[in-house]
Amino acid sequence: MNNIKYIGMDVHKATTVVAVLNHLGRVIAEAIIETKGLSILAFLKGLHGTLHVTFEEGTQAAWLYDLIRPHVALVLVCNPKKIAVQDNKADKRDARRLAELLRTGGLQAVYHGEHSTKPLKEFAQSYGAIVSDSTRVKNRIKALFRGRGIDCSGTAVYDKDQHEQWLNQMSTPALRLRVSRLFRELDFLTELREEAQKDIVTETQKHPAAKILQSMPGIGPLRAGVIIGFAITPYRFRTRKQFWTYCGLAVMSRITGEYVMVEGRVRRSQKLPLVRGLNHNYNRSLKEVFKGAAATAAMGPWKSHFDAMVANGTKPSLALLTLARKLASTTLALWRKGERYDEHKMSKSHAA
Fold first, then answer.
1. Which of 112-126, 198-212, 325-339 has the lowest mean pLDDT?
2. Domain coordinates of the chain in residue numbers?
3. What is the Cα–Cα distance from 96 to 101, expressed in whole angstroms?
C-alpha cells in the first residue's frame, strides 16, 4: 500500500496538469505536459511504484483511458458532475483535488468498456450523428414550406421522386434554389445513413449477445448493435433501476417534510412524493432504442398488453413508457443469463 501513487490529471486541449500524491496525501510531483500520447506516457514511465490515475470524463477521456490503461494498475474516469464545485478554481488545484479524492475513495467512476465493443460504439455514434443531422435538415425543409402557408404534413415532402413538385410551389428562383440544396443534403444524408446502418448490422453479428437481444420484441440488428455499443456489458448495472436511469427511463420524484412527530415519536408522513418526470442525465441513443422498440412491440407481440393498459385508463404515452421499462429490464436480465426471449414466459408474467 505504501508504494501506491495517486495521480490526478486536469486535461485540456493543449496541456495537461498532473499532480502526484503518495499514500499519506503529500504532493510528491507536479507537472504541466502536452496533451499528447508520447508526453503523457513518458511522464508515467518516470514514476515508480503502483500507479493509480484519475481524470474527468470529457471529450478526450476515451482516448486517454485506452492510452494509459496498459501502463498503470488502475485508471478511474470520474464523473465531474458528482464533484462539488469549489469557489477557487485553478488547474493545479483541480489536479491535486482529483488525486486526493482518488486516494480517499471520493470519486464516482464512469464506465469505459472493453476494446471488443469499441468499433460498434463508434459505428453507433456515427449513425446517431447522421440521424440527428437528417432530422435537422427535415425540420428546416418543413419550416420553409410552413412559413409560406404550404401544407407539408406527413413525410411526402421528403420523397426524392416528388422533389420537383414541391420545388414548383416555391414563389422565387432563390427560394427554390435554397430548398433544392436542402433536398440534396437530405438525399446525401440518407445514403450515409444506409451505409452507417449496414456497418452497425455487420459489426453486431460478431457479438454473441446479438442473438439474445434480437430475440426481444421490437429489437432488430440495428437496435441490438446500439445497445451493445453503449451498454457494453450487462454486469456494469447492479439493478434494473440503474439501467433505467442510464437509458433515461427512471421516474424522478421529490418529497419534503417526509417525517412528522406523533405523540412525541417520529413517524413517516402520509404525504406522497411528487413525480417530476424522467431523469435528465441519460444516454440518448439507448432511450431512443427502447422507446422505438416499445412502439414496435405495442403494435406487435405486446399489443394486447398495451391495449389492456389503455383500456384501464392509462394514457398511451405512459403505457409506452411502461413497455419501454419492461423491455429494458427484460433485456438486461436475459443478457445476464445468456437466454433468449420466450414469449410464453412473458405471457404468463403479463397475466400475473
1. 112-126
2. 4-104, 115-204, 209-351
3. 9
Over residues 60-101, the pLDDT tens digits come to 888 899 899 999 999 999 988 888 877 778 899 999 999 999
pLDDT (mean) for 141-154 = 94
Can you read off the three cell numbers belonging to residue 108?
464516482
* Residue type (1 letter), 51: L
Torsion of CA 220, 222, 226, 228, to 10 degrees: 60
How far from chain centre, in Å, is Cα 67?
Answer: 22
Q: What's the pTM value of the predicted model, to 2 decimals?
A: 0.71
Residue with cell 503518495: 22
For domain 4-104, say whether CATH 3.30.420.40 is its number: yes
Write out the chain in H/E/C secondary structure. CCCEEEEEEEECCCEEEEEEECCCCCEEEEEEEECCHHHHHHHHHCCCCEEEEEEECCCCHHHHHHHHHHHCCEEEEECHHHCCCCCCCCHHHHHHHHHHHHHHCCCCECCCCCHHHHHHHHHHHHHHHHHHHHHHHHHHHHHHHHCCCCCCCCCHHHCHHHHHHHHCCCCCHHHHHHHHHHHHHHHHHHHHHHHHHHHHHHHHCCCCHHHHHHCCCCCCHHHHHHHHHHHCCHHHCCCHHHHHHHCCCCEEEECCCCEEEECCEEEECCCCCEEEEECCCCCHHHHHHHHHHHHHHHCCCCHHHHHHHHHCCCCHHHHHHHHHHHHHHHHHHHHHHCCCCCHHHHHHHHHC
Find the farthest-apart pair of alpha carbons in the chain and give their distance in angstroms, rounded.
82
d(CA 303, CA 48): 62
> Is 283 within 8 Å of 230 (Cβ atoms)?
yes
Number of Cβ within 10 Å of residue 154's Cβ equals 8
Task: Say which residue, 235 or 4, is predicted with more confidence.
Answer: 4
